[in-house]
Amino acid sequence: MDDTHHFGRLVDYVQLRVRAQPRGVEALLGLRGPSSQFSNPTRAPNTNLRRYAVCCGSRRTMDMDMDKAKAELEVLRAFIDFVNRQVGVYSDCLAGFQGNVVRVERQVLGSVVLLCIESKMGNLS
Amino acid sequence: MWASVEDPARPDIIQHRIIRADEFINVNSERGFNEQQVCWSIIVFIFAYWDEEIRPRIAAIREVKPNDILIDALGDLRILRKSIIHNGGVLSAAEYAKLRLLKDVCEPSAAISPSHDQMHRIFVAVKQAISALILEYTGHLPGAPKAGEVVEIAIQNVRKP
């Protein structure tokens, strides 16, 4: 039997990282059979990553409104990208703050050291 | 220290401010004023994007009103955003009591000033909120995770043959 017809058409992957053991690809919106090329995936290097195949047209999802589910995925993709950009901005800003602190502290410390040397030289003289 | 948004090597530049070095270090220190401002900006920005762009589109797809789509984490962001914009960044005790998920990232009657770990907690809460939206249709399927377990999320394109 044609896999595509029987198990549905693959639409997307959703990667959900959870604190659990690796379980490879699991069907999230649909059901894929053992003969599917996606049922025996390469394990992701990160051991707590689960990857879900988003399928449509399978028997299991007949009672779902797949059009709505797929349409929402496109909207949520934009939201995920937006949030990830904010995480990037936050991380980069923190690095900037730390760098500023280190640089300015070094300048101030350098001045202090210089003053001490001058003072010492003054005492010596 | 002199600070300017213009090139200091050019003549007649406008100074933005003159600040003592120790104060400059202080505002740029961990949980200092500048980090707090970035955190506030991100909280307000994420909620605005959710409330004005994503929520109406999801509501249109589900054929409901935007206010009918309720997610606890994003509702908490709304409370934080309201305090940041309308109460000088101070979360009143009454608003604090309304928080459902993010009580551990702030304190009542105090300025909202999340640490790195607390900001990470906010990001994870937002990602769990997105997971809850995705799992709206599929959460009942065998093998589907619970939104509260999720710590990272991405949608990957299928490679076209």
Question: Can you tag this structure with a few keywords?
Answer:
heterodimer; A: 125 residues; 2 domains; three-stranded mixed sheet; rod-shaped; B: mainly alpha; two-stranded antiparallel ribbon; two-stranded antiparallel sheet; 5 helices; elongated
Protein architecture, described:
The complex is a heterodimer of chains A (125) and B (161). With 125 residues, chain A is an alpha+beta fold. Chain A has two domains: 1-63, no CATH class; 65-125. Helix content of chain A is 51%, strand content 17%. Chain A has helices at 3-7, 66-124, and strands spanning 9-18, 25-27, 49-56. Chain A has a three-stranded mixed beta sheet with strand order 1-3-2. The longest helix of chain A is centred in the C-terminal third of the chain and has 59 residues, at 66-124. The radius of gyration of chain A is 28 Å and the shape is rod-shaped. Chain B is mostly helical and 161 residues long. Chain B has one domain (37-149). Helices cover 48% and strands 9% of the residues of chain B. Chain B contains five helices and five strands; from the N terminus they run E-E-H-H-H-E-H-E-H-E. Chain B has helices at residues 21-27, 33-62, 72-86, 93-98, 116-134; strands spanning 2-3, 17-18, 90-91, 110-111, 150-156. A two-stranded antiparallel ribbon of chain B has the order 1-2. A two-stranded antiparallel sheet of chain B has the order 3-4. In chain B, helix 2 packs across helix 3. The mean pLDDT of chain B is 88. Chains A and B meet through strand 1, strand 3 and helix 2 of A and helix 1, helix 2, helix 5 and strand 5 of B.
Helix content of chain A: 40-55%
Count of DSSP strands of chain A = 3
Oligomer: heterodimer
Shape of chain A: rod-shaped
Structural class based on helices, strands and sheet pairing of chain B:
mainly alpha
Note the main sheet of chain B. 2 strands, antiparallel
Largest sheet of chain A: 3 strands, mixed
Uncertain spans of chain B: none
* Class from helix and strand fractions of chain A: alpha+beta
Radius of gyration of chain A: 28 Å
* H/E series of chain B: EEHHHEHEHE
